[in-house]
Amino acid sequence: MLSELRDQGSMNKESEAVSNPDQTSGEQWIRGTSKSRKRARQGFKLFVYGSILVCIAAFGVLYFEFSTEMLSVVIQVLPVTALMGNLIILAGALLFFSVPYEVNSRGLLIGAAVGFFAKIIFSGTVFCGPGFLGLPVALCLKLAGYIGLILFALFLRKLLLYINRPDQLVKVYGLLVTTVLFLLGSWCMELVVDLGLIKITLIHIYSVMLVGYFLYPCFLYSLKKIFVPVD
């Protein structure tokens, strides 16, 4: 009896949310229980988990490469961790294609998915040796991956505007600043070093990159509130 009353109460709330003329279509979508919303929420969780795995792999490389001698087990585990993280990120991004067309974000998601796929190629070829791709191709794949993160942040901005959550936009701007300042910054440092313009130690480049890989999932995780309807 109690379960029936609860179900009836939840159905009344959903119908009230959908029929409320004061709510935008985005607010109705985020308050509803559609498959589209559930897939988007699953995609968000996958993206966060994948970003955390990539961060762990980057931290492990920095620690074992410059602090101790890398063990054979660690050498095998860290690239696998990075590859799995990038695969999960791509899977999460693809699930976001379920959002309504009114978000007007297909182009951003396609560009982000292409960038994440490029990063998967870069991560997968690590097993083939450091010189397998060649330096120019490796730098281009890494750049594509970082651009994918920027495009995904811009997609989140459009999604926030669609569901009328401008209070969370500052966190998206944090994602953009993190990617540009630390990830693209480390890429630029690596580029100028490879061109022989200046000399920067590898540990400094990795340190800057690690800050970006750490802050990105932190800002991303703080956006979990967007899937919690505001009364």
Number of domains: 1
Mean pLDDT: 83
| Strand-residue proportion | under 5%
Order of helices and strands: HHHHHHHH
Write the layout of secondary structure elements.
Elements lengths: L1 H18 L5 H7 L3 H32 L5 H24 L10 H19 L10 H28 L6 H26 L7 H21 L9
Helix pairs in contact: 3-4, 3-8, 4-5, 5-6, 6-7, 7-8
Task: Write up what this structure looks like.
- It contains eight helices and no strands.
- It has 231 residues and is an all-alpha fold.
- The chain has one domain.
- α3 runs antiparallel to α4 and α4 (72-95) packs antiparallel against α5 (106-124).
Short précis:
The protein is mainly alpha-helical and 231 residues long.
Features:
231 residues, mainly alpha, 8 helices, elongated, disordered N terminus
